[in-house]
Amino acid sequence: MRKKEALIVDNILGLIFSESFLFSVFRLTTPILLATLSSVISERAGVGNITMEGTMLISAFARNSTIAVAQLKNPVKWGAFEVRLVMLFAINEGDARMIKIFFDWVSNVVNQPEELAKLVAPCSYEEFIDRIMG
């Protein structure tokens, strides 16, 4: 009887720690982790965000890729850094190339301090779009 119980436990542990199971766990929990991260950023900015599920649902059902940008009036301390700009984005599979374009643009801006300073400076919506579009 002990061998049978040990075999059952081995099989269950083998399934739990399999590569496909762990991949599924990461894939399924990512939206919740991202919503939690956005909630932490909002909390540190002094904004109570109780709509995490709404944020997740909007992203899940968006037909088009979407980028949300928040310029913080009061910077948020994040370790040794001051966060002044928060960008959240949802990119559909069909727009996967957009990810590379977006990250190339962000890398370019971050590596040019004067461009980064312009981007995070307070401004109107129209001015911000003009800055992004270059």
Which word captures the global form?
A: elongated
Helix content: 55-70%
Report the major sheet.
2 strands, antiparallel
Overall mean pLDDT: 76
Strand order of the largest sheet: 1-2
User: Which structural class fits the helix and strand makeup?
Assistant: alpha+beta
N-C termini distance: 72 Å
Radius of gyration: 21 Å
How many strand units? 2
The count of helical stretches stands at 6
Q: What share of residues are in beta strands?
A: 15-25%
Characteristic terms for this protein:
single chain; 134 residues; alpha+beta; two-stranded antiparallel ribbon; 6 helices; 2 strands; 62% helix; 17% strand
Overview of this protein structure:
With 134 residues, the protein is of the alpha+beta class. Helix content is 62%, strand content 17%. The protein has helices at 2-16, 19-44, 52-61, 96-110, 113-120, 125-133, and strands at residues 66-78, 81-90. It has a two-stranded antiparallel ribbon. The longest helix has 26 residues, at 19-44. The N and C termini lie far apart (72 Å).
